[in-house]
What does this fold into?
Amino acid sequence: MPAIKTERLAREFAGGITAVDGIDLEVAAGEIYGFLGPNGAGKTTTVRMLTTLLLPTGGSATVAGHDVASEAPAVRRKIGVALQEAALDPLMTGRELIQLQATLHGLPRARGRELGDALLQRVGLTLAADRRVGTYSGGMRRRLDLAAALVPSPEVLFLDEPTTGLDPVSRGAIWEEVEKLNSEGTTVFLTTQYLEEADQLADRVGIISAGRLVAEGTPAALKAEVGRPHLELSLADGEVDGEQCESILSRFGRPLPPRDGLHLVELERGASEVGAVVRALDEAGLAVESLDLVEPTLDDVFVAKTGQHLEGADEQADGESPP
Amino acid sequence: MRANVETVRALVRRAMNEITRVPGAAIPGVLAPTIFFLGLTAVFGNLTLLPGFDSESYQSFLVPVSMMQGAAFTGAATGVNLARDIEAGWFDRLLSSPAPRPVLLAGLVLSASLRSLIPATFLLIVALAVGAHWPGLLGLIVAYAVTMMMAVVAATWGTSLALKFRTQSAAPLMQVGMLLLVLTTTAYAPLDLLSGWLQEVARVNPVTQVVEAARQGFVGDVTWADTWPGLLALAGLAAVFTFFALRGMRRMTIN
Amino acid sequence: MIERLVANARVVAALGARSVKQTARRPQLAAPLVIFPTALLAIQTGGAGRAVDLPEFPPVESFLAFMLAGAMVQSVMLAGNSGGIALALDIEMGFTDRLFAAPISRFGVVLGRLAGTAALGAMIALWFVAIGLIFGVEFEEGVAGVLWIVVLVSASSLAFGGIGAAIALKSGKASVVQGLFPLVFVILFLSTAFFPANLMLEPAASVAEYNPLSFIVEGIREPIVAEFQLADQLEAVAAILGIGLFGIALSWVALRARARTGG
It folds into this structure.
């Protein structure tokens, strides 16, 4: 039984705005599913529908085996939710928040206390547990939000942009925690606008643009669809050995036009060929000065599917920005 | 069931944080009804000279009105806080949990009844100091009970508005709405001495019964006959606003 | 020196005209300032209206005729308070910095804004005059009286606006100005806005006799319920001027302090 399954899930708002336009997706139990897309693509709206905060206006969805529209309370018992706005009360302490979440889930107070200690330790907030949330840093708030989401030992964990606005260290800490949770069996549905995050964490990625799912698959498969990695190398004695280098490289794939003194070749059989290329050049007595393996990115996938970039869209040459 | 009670307790405790953890936040709400009481009695105090005014102490006559006013503001504040919580995303945390909606509502509004005790008590102390009649123990209990229930009514009103408009700028509507409800009663004078349209409105306004019920001990004896209409009015208003509040909560998932 | 004064005056006039136009174009902004006092007027007239039957009550046709002036003054005081809040918010958000960085007198900027508040005062006066006429109030001094009322109320609005602006400039925080909202009512209660002084309870009655606000209220009330008395009108004008000058002085000092500290 899939952890999450949607069928033509759609959401229209007053004024004819279609935020989500018929999404079919399936997340297997124990998977980390990354929902990737630019701002305004419909990620948050989708999450709100899956977490029963918003009713779909079209299609259907089941989470942990229950329909989000007709069996909402059952869904709520099995999910943990950490939304984009870390929904915290600045006047409460971290421990009190965990306690409140436990109470909301109908857990007795003693259990709430136990959970408080355990979860706060897990996310590294034991020392700050009795300080007011208003004094927490952004990274601490996210961690607390994550701890609160774990209170019901959820089958499915929903994380809406969990690391937006965090520094790299905090981001890494969250990633580590998500992976640990997943290894314990929790299904994770995470939305993000950072392709690195989707790339690193997700088992499978769904790319959403303007309310539609434009691509779905493992990061590797998606990238392979778009193109193969290419090698960029420069020789120590570029002028002398240039031609010979090109002919060797052409054995491994399609050579691309050289650029800035760099030789480029698309690796027919992927990144694993790097070693072989280096050995071949070495055997021919050609000294390699620098070597770069450039993989297609999920951004390339996005561009291929939508014609626009995922990140840094305002830097596009034609000056267009995403909706 | 036990879980629901715990949820209500936890939400009430959270609401009290506003007072216990933010120094001075409660002060305006506590002072306002008393300031108005002193001002209104100083200005209109001699209305008691009118024939037909069955009380010679305007202070005694007005105290219950000011208590209701305090309850109205306390309840409205609950609505404003909810609007703020909705804007900040905190309310999502409550809505995405398995706690039943009526339990959430109870947790939100019951805190108002506790918070209303503070301005009411402060007011009473000041009022007694400037010469209001001691209402007697029964009169005091009735006045307090009515105040607490009025605060809950005002809180459900404020909550309905917060859920409908989902923005703190609806605050004036929450405050003024309740205030007008309290003032279009026998607030300033007995029914017979009210003029024109106000007399008609006060006659049908259920809050008039509430004011009269709270007023009993201050101007005379406490009787069941004068108490039950007020309680009924409170129950009715609470029921109506609760209906709208619950509907508002359901509507949050629709758009 | 004279040139600079003239230049400043032109700028103030331009800003003032703009401020007045803005206010006139968006009457709905005046609504909250007027609706509450109007509702209160209706309620208090209905609730305490029989007071005119009391023997010591001054001779008036109706309690409404008596209270109209108080409602007008309440409205413009609230307008001054809310104008102050708006200015404080602008300061908090840094909008005023843009204006202050321009090569015009900072004081002129503030004065220009206040012109809008004066226009608001005129609208408030006309609103309550209309209410009075609709509900049967006869203005003893007729059209001349109404015009004079509009003048007095606009001037009061300017004066209270100045106080509001001064507090906003001094504190730079909307919450401080907001906190003075109850003070408006306290001052009104301690005046003859809602009831004649001779019928109020002590010690409020004594305070009301000397409260400058009472002079202003009486000045506005007179043309409605009686004939012009020069002495009363002079008292009203003096009170308005006094408050106005106080507000201006406070604003001036606050502006200079702000300029010095770069706030």
About this structure: The mean pLDDT of chain B is 91.
